[in-house]
User: Fold this.
Amino acid sequence: MAEQPEEVLRFLEAVKALEEIDDDAACAVAITKVLKDWGENSARLREIRQQRVLNLREQGKTWQEIGDIMDVHYTRAQQIAKGLRGNKRPTKKEAEA
Assistant:
């Protein structure tokens, strides 16, 4: 397994900590609170990733190089730059436009 950035490890540790809550009710409540905010944060993560991919492109990286960096196919890197989701649906912003 490739080395994970510290932030990814912290996120995975947080998920594990939720799973390890002994009290079923407390665990369910904690996870519900996380999931209530997940949608907004998921969209924000996609926006940040898109901007970073665009930044890499502006730095002169090829789509192949960006795909390799992200461990995705170069066409997926292009889709991310356009704001397309994996299922090819437009982002919420695009749908509202």
